[in-house]
Amino acid sequence: MDSPNALSTAPAAGSRKNATLICVPIMGESVEKMEIDVDKAKAGGADLVEIRLDSLKTFDPYRDLNAFIQHRSLPLLFTYRPKWEGGMYDGDENKRLDALRLAMELGADYIDIELQVAHEFYDSIRGKTFNKTKVIVSSHNYQLTPSIEDLGNLVARIQATGADIVKIATTALDITDVARMFQIMVHSQVPFIGLVMGDRGLISRILSAKFGGYLTFGTLESGVVSAPGQPTLKDLLYLYNLRQLAPDTKVFGIIGKPVGHSKSPILFNEVFKSIGLNGVYLFLLVDDLANFLRTYSSTDFVGFSVTIPHKETALKCCDEVDPVAKSIGAVNCIVRRPTDGKLIGYNTDYVGAITAIENGLRGKHNGSSTTISPLAGKLFVVIGAGGAGKALAYGAKAKGARVVIANRTYDHARKLAYAIGGDALALADLDNYHPEDGMILANTTSIGMQPKVDETPVSKHALKYYSLVFDAVYTPKITRLLKEAEESGATIVTGLEMFMGQAYGQYENFTGLPAPKELFRKIMENY
């Protein structure tokens, strides 16, 4: 099967590949506090800041606007958001509009006016010339993202006010909602800001730079946001390398639910940057995989890593599946073939985990690297019957191990055991399972993953029967299971080893190039 090695290399870093501005929202109770943050935003690499006047505890329009404008170190966008549009101001409407008019008179770079009051605002400034200020007319929908027709009509209504820049912010109920915003953005004839709020809308804030958005927002600190789902300025610049995104940038990402814990975006974006590959790798919080793949079917969306809970569904969604992935019954890597756009599914999970476990066992026996696997003849207990469980069971079986599947739902364990020719066990019975010593244990469930780090799938007293314990969870690196296994005298293998191994395989499927393993290791060591 061909790999999509038709990926153009990105030009040297430093130069800017898109005109999308990065705006840092500034919220603060006092002008002084805000001015400190403006300087921080400038130092951090922002292009402009949004001054949220509605966050000030006390506000004297003439004095305060003058202070901001006289001291500005970056272009200023003034927003005075009322409660009825999701802001904090609930005073007199005329005073609010007076303040924004005054900001124009004093030479603000931008002001933001809500569509609902835009006509009357424009009426009040008719005949006056403000050479400097660009007016953004905005509409916010905190419920949903409208249909493509409704979005198109909304753009037309905003344009009809006389807006210099159109801004539409909607809410993502599903990641596919964002595709409609991208469609409007790509075809817009006017400067257009299109953002989709919420975790499921995160890609709108990054890919705005690919699809021609006028600006995107990045916060100074994580957690301190002016709208849900905003990334940090630092992540926009250094995780996603926003300045390097161009119309022809290829999009990759990790599909999961949850997905925020994944280290794949850190790893792949850093590798892409180091080798000069023109791609960006995103977090993709996906509820319905088939719908996601149908919606993002353009050739720009070239490759996806797949994690819990979508690995088995992914198998059904691909046009072709690698024979190994088919035997396992799970796909963790999907590649769009450039020649015909078909989706090809692979499984790179088992190689990483099995190799790491073999290396752990060999380490115990002075690296006697024979052709026979150190797993041959061993009793190999897999906890979990999902995608990763299937991969490990398949891999261990292929190396000659005797496999036992333990799962909360015994029926799922039985099905997998039957499929690979092994035995099944209810997870509750694992604590008292001891047919022999020197067994191998592999946890493939999310038990023990952040934030529930005090959980473990097996009682400590049972761990003395195992010579090696592996945990696929890698956040934290040393889970409670691994800590207790080590205290019980077992060799431990961390999920980071499996993560690295599967990442090499995905990289090779994505690019058609051999994985730069040293570079991968160096990047992960920093985290």
TrEMBL record:
Its EC number is 1.1.1.25, 4.2.1.10. InterPro entries: Aldolase_TIM, Aminoacid_DH-like_N_sf, DHquinase_I, NAD(P)-bd_dom_sf, SDH_C, Shikimate_DH-bd_N, Shikimate_DH_fam, Shikm_DH/Glu-tRNA_Rdtase. Keywords: Lyase, Oxidoreductase. Residues 374-446 form the Quinate/shikimate 5-dehydrogenase/glutamyl-tRNA reductase domain. CDD domains: DHQase_I (cd00502), NAD_bind_Shikimate_DH (cd01065). Gene3D superfamilies: Aldolase class I, Leucine Dehydrogenase, chain A, domain 1, NAD(P)-binding Rossmann-like Domain. Residues 495-524 form the SDH C-terminal domain. GO terms for molecular function: 3-dehydroquinate dehydratase activity; shikimate 3-dehydrogenase (NADP+) activity. GO terms for biological process: chorismate biosynthetic process; shikimate metabolic process. The keyword Ligase does not apply. Residues 254-334 form the Shikimate dehydrogenase substrate binding N-terminal domain. This is Bifunctional 3-dehydroquinate dehydratase/shikimate dehydrogenase, chloroplastic isoform A. The keyword Oxidoreductase applies.
